[in-house]
Amino acid sequence: MLIVQKYGGSSLATAEKILYVANKIKENYLKGNDMVVVLSAQGDMTDILLEKAKEISKNPSKRELDVLLSTGEVQSAALMAMALEDRGFSAVSLNALQAGIFSTSEHGLAKIVSINPTRIKNELKAKKIVIITGFQGIDEHGNITTLGRGASDTTAIALASALVADLCEIYTDVEGIYTADPKQVENAIKHKELCYNETLELAQMGASVLHSRSVELAQKFGIDFFVKSSTIESEPTLIKACNLEEKIISGIASEKKICKLSITNISGEKMLLILQLLAMHKISVDMASCVANNLSFVVHKSDLSKTLEIINAYFSEEILVEKNLVKISLVGTGVAYDTEILALFYETLLKEGVEISLLSLSTIKISVLVKKDDTKRAIKALHKNLVEGV
To answer: Contact at 8 Å (CB) between 302 and 257?
Structure first.
């Protein structure tokens, strides 16, 4: 059996944790399995490297920043190979170029375009455990790129597809995917199985267990995979295709550091131009409302200054900004079009005295924008009435 495993940074944060993971890999290898292991950078290494860059340059080039950040995964892979070799097992660490992982050229947010698995397959034939750097690729010009924070998940899913793996496992610091953050909701329920669509929405709405592009890739190529704890032996969550007509409330996710921008008394033509400008500059806009010459929309705090700069360069209208809001999303197949669920959702927040700034619906989610101080209370109430009560 060919197994692809991915271990996140928290699972590799110390030497002791690396040795623990090495033993887990060893156990699977001794069962006769071929092992391909994708690793993230240790602990907070990516943040440490970003701070080092700031010590040298206020505005480092994206290319050189990718070169620097990629060293975190290289370090993890080399250390893991050393740990396995010390235990008497043949192992080899491969960076993105050596592993044949080719990407687009957008530094910091590159996407995998192809994988040439020849080197990996040759190493497996030689009975080696193959350790591969996650989070990175090589573009058509031979430059190192990074795929975005948390993208080692995406690397693992892409490799599982390219290698036609029998099993793909994403190891993290939680036991699986829950109906809500267990740190906020003590009665959060762990899913045994979850559909691609719901998992993707949870990931995009702030549930940080998985990188959203990894779920998109898994759905595209039909890769079922498990989300497991790297430290606790417990039943994992299986991510797979599901019956889309089956009504399931998958969970509640929240995304912090959200900002709402409002512009009043502007024409439809100006609204359109603003949205076109933001799209041109790749600013992600969410929960937009265009009513009676009033435009409101949501951006992440990290995009706020750039958004204001873009709009102010073309328009003189006053922009009202509300910072530090939180987007709460109820995710599940068909929930937005089930009037009973929608009514109960609204009633729950109304009874809790939670002020709703914006509300939006999609096929499988209901999202609201609330004040930061209302977040925990709102999530607990929604979970009790809509997840535990179902």
So the answer is: yes
Looking at residue 211, what is its pLDDT? 81
**Tokens for 313?**
């360069």
- CB atoms near residue 104 (< 10 Å): 15
Report pLDDT for 208: 63
Confidence of residue 206 (pLDDT cuts 50, 70, 90): low
Do residues 348 and 385 lie in contact, with contact meaning Cβ atoms separated by under 8 Å?
yes
The pLDDT score that the predictor gives to residue 315 is 87
Reduced to 3 DSSP states, what percent helix, strand and coil does the chain have, rounded to the nearest 5?
A: 40, 25, 30
Contacts of residue 224, defined as CB under 8 A and 6 or more positions apart, other chains included, come to: 168, 218, 238, 239, 240, 241
The SS3 assignment for 133 reads: strand
Between strands 34-39 and 2-7, the pairing is: parallel
Distances (CA, A) of 83 to 16, 19, 87: 10, 6, 7
**pLDDT tens-digit map of 68-123:** 999 999 999 999 999 999 999 999 999 999 999 999 999 999 999 999 999 999 99
| Phi, then psi, of 350 in degrees rounded to 5 | -65, -45
Pairing of strands 112-115, 129-133: unpaired
- For 297-324, what is each residue's pLDDT tens digit? 999 998 999 999 999 998 888 999 999 8
User: Which tokens sit at 28?
Assistant: 């699977």
C-alpha pair distances (Å), 306 with each of 68, 178, 282, 287 = 25, 34, 10, 18
Rg (CA), the chain: 22
Task: From 41, 6, 1, select the one nearest 21 (Cα to Cα).
Answer: 6
Q: Hey, what are 230's tokens? A: 């790297």
Task: Specify whether the CB–CB gap between 150 and 211 falls below 8 A.
Answer: yes
For residues 197-207, give the mean pLDDT. Answer: 73
